[in-house]
C-alpha cells in the first residue's frame, strides 16, 4: 500500500499501526496523522533503533498492508 493511501485512510490504519507498535499511544498515532516521516521518528524514539532500522520497519509494515 502506498503512503497516499495510508494517509488517506489513517483512521483505519491507526488500529493496524497500534497492533504493530504497541508502545505508541493513541494520541501519538493521532498526531502522526499518516505521515511516514513522523511515524518513522516515533518508532525510532519509542523502540530505540536507528533511523534506517525504523524506516525499514515502517516500510515492511506498509508493504504487508
UniProtKB/TrEMBL annotation:
Domain of life (superkingdom): Bacteria
- The record places domain CsbD-like at 4-56
Q: Which family does the record assign?
A: Belongs to the UPF0337 (CsbD) family.
What is this protein identified as?
A: CsbD family protein
Q: Which organism is the protein's source?
A: Vreelandella zhaodongensis
Q: What is the lineage of its organism?
A: Bacteria, Pseudomonadati, Pseudomonadota, Gammaproteobacteria, Oceanospirillales
